[in-house]
Amino acid sequence: MAEFQEVLKQSALHPKPAGLCLQYGTAGFRTNAKQLDHIMFRMGMLATLRSKKTQATIGVMVTASHNPEEDNGVKLVDPMGEMLTPAWEDYATQLANAEQDDLARAVKEVIQKEAIDMSREANVFVGKDTRSSSPALSQAVIDGVSALGGHTPLHGLVSEHKGECAMYLLLNASNRTDDQKHLCVDGANGIGALKVREMEHHLQKGLQISLFNDGSKGKLNHQCGADFVKVQQKPPADIEINPGERCCSFDGDADRIVYYYTDSDGRFHLLDGDKIATLISTFLKELLTQAGLDLNIAVVQTAYANGSSTLYLENTMKVIVKCTKTGVKHLHHEAQKFDIGVYFEANGHGTVLFSQAAVEKIQQLAEDANSDDTKKRAALLLQSTVNVINQTVGDAISDMLLIEAILAVRGMTVQQWDAMYTDLPNRQLKVKVSDRRVIDTTDAERRAVSPAGLQDAIDSLVKKYRQARSFVRPSGTEDVVRVYAEAETQESADALAHEVSLAVY
Ligand code: NG1
Ligand code: ZN
């Protein structure tokens, strides 16, 4: 067969040191990077065979995780993020150890045993970490994929970030319809738009992005972006969105994200940071139960969190809810106190933190050969979440990938997500005062302690409306006092916000 001529020719460029024998273990192959070139080439071939067999995209990750810099390693990842099955682990070991002149035979044997149709297409994602040996080794994987006629989207290199690789796989493996795969992204003419442009191609199978405000003409955050959408409660000015279409907006530096859609009556629905925290924490809690892991999980919010979200999380989802002062550093600090801390400001800043102990327990379970399928799947999904989420700071793109993967895995539409609870109508106003520092607050900014009488005035205004809540606080970023009110109806929320702002003067 012509293709085996190619295999022999190519593999001679990645020769195996005679006599070297390695075993495919839980972490794949892992050893000194100098001994791995032939292994990488051969694992590229094996991933191609696996992709032809499963007709799905297979991941190859080049990394030795926490091991020393001089080491490296490789493991194959099935479409749902699972490890290889034992039979394929054996093939991996056989291919790795075949002497140079026996390689073509070893490859043919796998093809025969698995009855692989070699005319099928194969797609392999290759991820790598930042080790100095990783670029050359991942190129060897790509050579192996090409030797058997497979494809490596975006020259095979997905990203430096192994978690993104896992999330791409989840997205690409999901059975969403074309409609469900479609997502409008408003890049706010900022940095996030550039990054989305770079990655949209290799997401294509699971997520089809239409990117707006990509920086080619509009101004940064002007009539677009997460803040505009959240505060104006409407879509960006220049986007035509169809009813029911799932959309999201980043802010200019891509550390905030909000989702939204319009319904068939033209009504705008915003899924803000509170809804995002609810989606993520519900997903994680469900996985913890399935995995049988005893880890605590908390959602950290600020006073701006919609009252409905807090009630839903506490009463229906039974997760711990904490409230801190406005500002990511306060939320981050509080979230660190839990095994899993999900934190989001209503405006879309946020992320998920996992304690070291939580990461270790999840990893142990994911690698435990004796755990059952449900537990294993849950552990792998938790592990993918740990990997994709940016624990240092929330970033809009990791948040978007996680949200899209959750919707895909749960087979959930944006409308179903929105229906988890109904936001209380709310209103935010800014009030200019001569000196905003005369307002001092307590209880995570929910109550004013000075000037005297202000809190009493707010309390009696709030009593006039049903399901009402209101607070005032000096902004930390603008020379204004912010007023927030929520109530049973929009009219009530607007009236209450207006009355409270008069009390501030
Ligand atoms: P101030 O101006 O202190 O309300 C605003 C946002 C915060 C946070 C910071 C920093 C609101 C109500 N406030 O703070 O959530 O994003 O900017 O960026 O959205
Ligand atoms: Zn920002």
TrEMBL record:
One of its GO terms (molecular function) is phosphoacetylglucosamine mutase activity. Residues 448-501 form the Alpha-D-phosphohexomutase C-terminal domain. CDD domains: PGM3 (cd03086). This is Phosphoacetylglucosamine mutase. Catalyzes the conversion of GlcNAc-6-P into GlcNAc-1-P during the synthesis of uridine diphosphate/UDP-GlcNAc, a sugar nucleotide critical to multiple glycosylation pathways including protein N- and O-glycosylation. It catalyses: N-acetyl-alpha-D-glucosamine 1-phosphate = N-acetyl-D-glucosamine 6-phosphate. Residues 182-258, 272-410 form the Phosphoacetylglucosamine mutase AMG1 domain. Keywords: Acetylation, Carbohydrate metabolism, Isomerase, Magnesium, Metal-binding, Phosphoprotein. The active site is at S65 (phosphoserine intermediate). It is an enzyme of class 5 (isomerase). Binds 1 Mg(2+) ion per subunit. Substrate binds at E345, A346, N347, R473, P474, S475, G476, T477, R482. Mg(2+) binds at S65, D251, D253, D255. Pathway: Nucleotide-sugar biosynthesis; UDP-N-acetyl-alpha-D-glucosamine biosynthesis; N-acetyl-alpha-D-glucosamine 1-phosphate from alpha-D-glucosamine 6-phosphate (route I): step 2/2. Its cofactor is Mg(2+). Residues 52-98 form the Alpha-D-phosphohexomutase alpha/beta/alpha domain. Gene3D superfamilies: Alpha-D-Glucose-1,6-Bisphosphate, subunit A, domain 3, Alpha-D-phosphohexomutase, C-terminal domain. GO terms for biological process: carbohydrate metabolic process; hemopoiesis; UDP-N-acetylglucosamine biosynthetic process.
